[in-house]
Structures are given as structure tokens and as C-alpha cells.
Design a protein that fits this description.
By secondary structure, the chain is mainly beta. Helices cover about 0% and strands about 45% of the residues.
Length: about 325
């Protein structure tokens, strides 16, 4: 199932100093107000650091799924620029610290005989309860999203391509940054939903979605779920599903051309609504955000909700944590 904000989920890295409380405006939809706590991962302090940048965190509680995990939580992330590489860190608290897995990347840009691409990035890991496996969705190139599967969350077996530009309207140039969630849509015979970013020849990015009965074979809406122009953005991306009070929401980053905040739109349980609710998390001007927050992931630890996200300029930021 997908995460409910405020509900249970599922060489040492530097942890930044906590800042004084700066409460944000009340989050729409009854969600917690998140306040920046600290930096969790900084590229310059990682052993595997091919490009000086990291993006797109995904956190999973593994303590109830593995008999001998490295830590209670696995945090997946990646550089974006070539060669990229899907990476892992582990820790015992969502608030940190997290320790870099010593053999990163766990998935590289060359995986014979399946693919050889310039980069792989944007890891999203789903615990597939039916298969009792960790399912990793990741892109490489920006045109293609792939699936790999694992029993331990570290060693993966390649499965297949699940999304490509050829599955969307003519003129689509990118289909990437996908996240997949357990979500029933009986009218479509679906048990899983995917949200992702789409770019086309206009060079403005929207959020699209698809549905699947098994998480492997997908159908896609040919129209955007959230259009950049409808929320006054140049681009929107980094979507994540949340559920609260019997409704479904998409949170996503809004690019205004310079910096950007995390926004929220109610789509309803059947994805039929388009209720744009405004700012979910207002990025701070201070470091490490420097006016930009993006690609959020969510979890709850000890009853406390946390958001782990990109903080800082695109391809020059860090992975940070905020507390609700």
C-alpha cells in the first residue's frame, strides 16, 4: 500500500546541524506541517560520488521484512548525471544518521545482457507483499523506466521495461521519475498505480499516471494527471501519492524557473478529481534548501511523521529530512 502521512511505514555519512524551528504554513488536506531537521546525505562525503550530486530519495522500513537487515530503514538514492547508479544507505531512525552501503552502486548503468545506457537514476522501491520481494523501479535513459526485483533489498534481478516514451502520445521525449504504490482501482481491474514525470517537445514537464493489476504490465492515461500550467509552473515532477481521510493526493515539486516548493493536488481514490490545494511544503531560503525542495518520500518512525527529500539546487543539492 502507499504511505499515509502520519501513519506507520515502513563509512558513516555526515549529519547536518539541526536548525531552529521555523514552522511552515499549515499543510493543506490536514497533513502534518513538516519542518526541516537536518541533512542526511551529502554527495561530497560519499565513497561513491561520480558526479558530485544525488537526487530522488526513497525510504523503506525493512525491520519487519528481513531477518537480519543492515538497519531498520533502507534509503535508496542516486546521482543523476552519467553514469548515475542506484545507491543504498541504511540506518535505525528516519531522522538519521544513515550509513553508506560499501558496495554502491547496487544497480549500475550497464547490466548485461539487459541494457547499456548513459545513466540510471530515480530509484523507487516498493515492498510487493504478494511476491514478498522488493521491487525497484528506476530510469535509464530518461525515456525508459525499468523494474528489478530482490529478496533482500540489496541484490537485484532484472525483470523488464515497464514504461517508455513509445507508450505515451507522439512527441513524448521523457518518461521518468516514476513511483509505484499499492492502490486498488476496481473499475480498471488494477491493484497498483504509477505516477511519473513526462516531458514532450514543448519542453514543459507534467505529471502522468498509469495502473496495473500486477505491477509489471501497465496501462497509461494519455492525458496529464497534473498539468504544469494548471498550477502556474514551468515544470512539475517528483510525484508521490498520499492518502488521508478516505481520499488520495499527489504531492510533487513545482519548478518556477528558479527554485520551487512541494505542492499538493487531491485526485481522489478514483483519480477523477483535480483539486489543486497549493503549497504542501514551503522551501526555505537558507541552506541546504536554498529555495528548492523536491522529490519527497514519507515514513513514520515511533509515531512521528518524516519527509525525506531533495534539498537545494537541481543537481547540486543534498538529501534532507523534515519532521511533521
Amino acid at each position: 500500500m502507499f504511505l499515509r502521512a502520519g501513519a506507520a511505514t515502513g563509512a558513516a555519512l555526515a549529519v547536518g546541524t539541526s536548525v531552529g524551528a521555523q514552522p511552515a504554513a499549515a499543510a493543506p488536506g490536514g497533513f502534518p506541517d513538516y519542518t526541516y531537521v537536518r541533512t542526511l546525505l551529502t554527495a561530497s562525503q560519499l565513497k561513491y560520488n561520480p558526479t558530485g550530486e544525488i537526487i530522488f530519495p526513497c525510504v523503506r522500513g525493512v525491520y519487519d521484512k528481513l531477518s537480519s537487515p543492515l538497519g531498520r530503514y533502507y534509503l535508496y538514492y542516486a546521482p543523476h548525471d552519467a553514469p548515475g547508479g542506484i545507491c543504498l544507505a541504511y540506518g535505525n531512525s528516519l531522522a538519521g544518521p544513515f550509513t553508506e552501503y560499501p558496495s554502491n552502486p547496487i544497480v549500475a548503468n550497464k547490466w548485461s545482457p539487459h541494457y547499456s545506457v548513459s545513466h540510471v537514476s530515480s530509484p523507487h522501491v516498493l515492498w510487493n507483499q504478494d511476491a514478498k520481494e522488493f521491487w525497484l523501479y528506476f530510469h535509464g535513459e530518461n525515456t525508459t523506466t525499468r523494474l528489478a526485483r530482490s529478496a533482500d533489498g540489496i541484490h537485484f534481478t532484472y525483470d523488464k521495461v515497464v514504461l517508455s516514451t513509445s507508450m505515451l502520445p507522439v512527441g513524448t521525449t521523457e518518461t521518468s521519475y516514476a513511483r509505484v504504490f499499492r492502490h486498488d482501482l476496481p473499475s480498471l481491474g488494477a491493484r497498483y498505480v504509477m505516477v511519473f514525470m513526462l516531458n514532450n517537445t514543448t519542453d514543459h514537464r507534467d505529471i502522468h499516471w498509469g495502473w496495473s493489476a500486477d505491477g509489471r504490465n501497465w496501462s497509461y492515461d494519455q492525458q496529464p494527471l497534473i498539468r504544469h500550467g494548471d498550477v502556474g509552473a514551468v515544470n512539475v515532477g517528483g510525484p508521490h501519492l498520499l492518502h488521508r481521510d478516505n481520499s488520495t493526493y499527489v504531492v510533487y515539486n513545482k519548478d518556477k524557473g528558479s527554485g520551487g516548493d512541494i505542492m499538493i493536488t487531491e485526485v481522489g481514490n478514483d483519480f477523477g478529481k483535480r483539486n489543486h490545494l497549493g503549497v504542501f511544503y514551503n522551501s526555505r531560503s537558507a541552506a541546504p534548501e536554498n529555495g528548492r525542495a523536491a522529490a519527497p518520500a514519507f515514513g513514520t518512525d515511533g509515531g512521528v511523521p518524516y519527509m525525506i527529500y531533495e534539498a537545494g539546487e537541481r543537481l547540486a543539492g543534498a538529501i534532507a529530512v523534515a519532521r511533521g
